[in-house]
Design goal:
The chain has 316 residues and is of the alpha+beta class. The protein is 29% helix and 22% strand. It contains nine helices and 13 strands. The strands form four sheets. A six-stranded antiparallel β-sheet has the order 2-1-13-12-11-10, with helices on both faces. The chain has a three-stranded antiparallel β-sheet with strand order 5-9-6, covered by helices on one side. It has a two-stranded antiparallel ribbon with strand order 3-4. The chain starts with 6 loop residues before the first strand and ends with a helix.
Amino acid sequence: METNKEAMGTISIFKQGAEIYNSSFGYKKMESKERANENTRYWIGSISKTYTATIILQLIDEGKISFNRKLGEFFPGIVNAKEITIKDLLLHRSGLHNVTNDPSFEVWIAEPRSRKEMIARIKKFKPVFKPNKMTEYSNTNYVLLSYIAEKIEDKSFEEILERRIFKRLNLKRTSFNDTLNLANNEAMDYFPENGDWSPITYQTNLTGTMGAGGIISTAREVNIFYNDLFSGEFLSDQTLKTMTTPVGDDLGMGIAVSTMKGSDIYGHTGRIDGFRSMAAYFPEEKLSIALTFNCGKGSMVKKMKRVLNAYRYTFK
């Protein structure tokens, strides 16, 4: 991938809970020719939604909230909030406009954004459809879910993630709502331009992305989380089954549910600024694969298929 200028980053493969492969290629910072390594941290973008869904589903298991609770109990000023349920938000069936689709959003989100500012921006847009009438992916849903978790737990979403996931799994290279810190072995991100990689002009400030895309991690630690989640370490059997049962367009709760090369797959892609990522769990094989790139072009799903093919050729 590096040779063909398709991507740079790290690949990790877990089998039955243990890492069997980890390889980094390319540079974490091209200007200084610093190579990426297994501990290099990447922004994982929308893979963060799997973590957010897990927290909401834990709260449901604990009886602190239910699928049928209404958005209006938390944010009554949002259009259709009296009809939109927690389940609608989890399954992208709220009908709320995807706030990141606004052409001016890229520049706006480069500055720190508070909950008040994000809610005000969400309120500006008309709904796309009536709640629970169809499925359409929207980052707005998971921004709101993270704010709801904060209200229920009376803690910041960062604290909730730390207590419920990061510390529980001893994820020392994973953080939330952080700034790009190249001194902490984090990758700088780039985008393809004229056959080469160019640095990003506007860097997203993660204070606004919240549970829709605010996590930084390594490929290995993404795999640790995915493996433990789908092995049943976080949720009751029934809740995990609900999470992994798709409703329209193959979307589960915080994941996509589909097939790849003849195997079932639970996964999510991530894209934020120049970062590209994908995490996938194959339940029949107890296999998880994480791709974390600081630049990339083309389909992440196709890249995942190539890695899966290479794994099956090498390890079987």
